[in-house]
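Following up on my earlier message about adenosine-3'-5'-diphosphate. Here are the inputs again, as you asked, copied directly from the submission form:
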Amino acid sequence: NDFPPYIDGLVKSFPHQYVTTPEFAKKAEDVYNLSPRPDDVYISTFPKCGTTWVQELVWMVVNDCDFEKAKKEQLSVRSPFLEMNYMLPIKLAETFEMEEICRKAISLVLGDRLRDLEQINKMAGPRIIKSHLPLYLLNPQVLSTSKVVYVARNPKDVIVSYYHFHQLLQFHQYVSNLETFADYFMTDRVYSAPFFPHLLDAWNKRHHPNLHFVFYEDLKRNLRGEIVKISQFLGKKLSDDQLTKLTEHLRFDNFAKNKMVNCEKQEVAGLENIGKEIGLMNISGHFIRKGKTGDWKNHFSSELNERIDEWMRKNLEGTDLRFITEL
Ligand code: A3P
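Thanks, got it. Here's what our run produced:
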């Protein structure tokens, strides 16, 4: 009950604290019980850590760099979002009493075909499954059966990116400024919080043979090298030519323009403007926004930065996880 109004209705679910929708809390057990397959690859992330980037990367590696298919089909169709169906903004659906329209609008904005577990269960393999759930909310058999690529990013840039995302997708109903948002973030009052347990759980499992832990900042520093490492982890070998083309395909400038991944698809018959009409997507923003390490320096006051440093110091105490906050 100390939640800010913009996430009124969210709950903290079991078994650890986890901020999610009431709808997901009801389905958490079903999601937990999803049967993992040996050829599944999960992309597990806290939001805004580079999920979409690595999802496309992994899909390409697993599918032998099928650029033709990637050009024709939305990433969100090729690679389902495990808990998407339960992240429906309940309040919005109630307000408009048009759940179906909301679903279509979200599918328009996210370029998504909403998936329920049944559809994911039936999907032909190999499945590349995106999830923002921390590993502790996924069935432990996922790690013993399938492969997991976990992407982490420094929290300063995550805060800035997540703040912009809240402005972009207005169903979050976030109306305040970045400083207040950072406070919500640090006190675990945003979707998918708390941040540190999410990352630390995966960090502590990073030596598991079925887990590959990668930092966003390393992808920024050496994309080609990280593609090679991920390919090796997935038991695939790309040719030099494939590697060159894939690195180019994933480079920020190209990625941001790619309509199959940038969530800017606007062509659903009859729904051209619905996203804007119901305030789902702020037309002045972009999902693939800036793609920088250190953008936080353009946003934080020195006072806020000191508070974030202190929050990071406390949460990293006794751990060997360290972040790169500038490149
Ligand atoms: P910014 O908001 O800082 O630009 P997610 O996919 O987990 O939601 O993460 C989104 C963040 O990853 C955004 O960060 C986005 O710009 C960044 N991103 C997406 N594609 C990228 C790419 N090809 N290169 C660098 N950053 C990328």
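One observation from looking it over: The radius of gyration is 19 Å. Hope that helps, and feel free to reply on this thread.
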